[in-house]
Design goal:
Structural class: alpha+beta
Oligomer: single chain
CATH architecture of the largest domain: Sandwich
Distance between the termini: 70 Å
Shape: rod-shaped
Helix content: 40-55%
Largest sheet: 7 strands, mixed
Length: 234
């Protein structure tokens, strides 16, 4: 009996712990998106802010690439960082950017023609290993949401209507907790049924003993009636 109750408690606790672990370990990596759409006029030098989304590894090395549709006119200094420029590419070293944080780098660009242009970003760890690479495609909805896009003379498309819905992590966490609750309920019901069967067995045993006592008493009374009284003294 105690074992069944213990299993029910363990099932619920496991589901709650799993949901909490998902929320704490998975959610931070997807909860922040740093790049914001940049809108600039055509044929005019404009400042853009390139957002860099860092996940689980701190990043001291960021390389930003300006696509062919834009001209890189200027690299603005960034406190705590140094940079080297090679053509339309700028490499920053410094920081670092902490895990699960955002950092923005300012550049001056000009768009000769109308259009949407993706800014590439390469992130490297302290040992030089590439930990993230992004070359967003303006025609891809996911890239538009996650990457840095510059819109020259055009408006950014509206965000996806389903973006405000619950995340997959939230749904999975709720589902796991629900499964744990159902398992706990099933095991508790089994424990209740087992207790009921035990009680029925005890009642049956008590009833049998009562019946035997009554039968024994009846036989004693019958024996007394059949046995004559002993003769008195003469």
């Amino acid at each position: 009996m105690r074992r069944v109750r213990r299993l029910a408690n363990l099932a619920l606790a496991a589901a709650l712990a799993t949901g909490a672990t998902l929320a704490l370990t998975v959610a931070p990596a997807s909860a922040h998106i740093c790049p914001l759409p940049a809108e600039i006029p055509v044929g005019q030098s404009s400042t853009i802010s390139v957002g860099v989304t860092v996940e689980a590894t701190a990043v001291p090395d960021v390389e930003i690439g300006v696509p062919a549709g834009l001209r890189l006119e200027r690299v603005d200094p960034k406190a705590g960082w140094t940079f080297t420029r090679r053509g339309s590419s700028v490499r920053y070293r410094g920081g670092p950017i902490p895990a699960f944080a955002c950092k923005y780098f300012s550049l001056g660009v000009t768009a000769p023609t109308r259009g949407a242009f993706g800014i590439s970003v390469v992130q490297r760890a302290a040992d030089g290993k590439v930990v993230a690479r992004s070359t967003p495609d303006p025609n891809n909805a996911s890239d538009r949401a996650l990457g840095q896009i510059v819109y020259a003379g055009v408006k950014p498309p509206p965000a996806a209507s389903g973006s405000k819905g619950p995340s997959a992590v939230t749904i999975a966490s709720v589902a796991l907790v629900g499964i744990g609750a159902v398992m706990a309920g099933v095991l508790s019901f089994r424990a209740w049924r087992a207790r009921g069967r035990d009680q029925d067995d005890e009642d049956e045993i008590d009833g049998d003993e009562t019946n035997r006592d009554a039968e024994l008493h009846a036989r004693v009374e019958q024996f007394k009636k059949r046995t004559p009284d002993p003769p008195g003294p003469e």
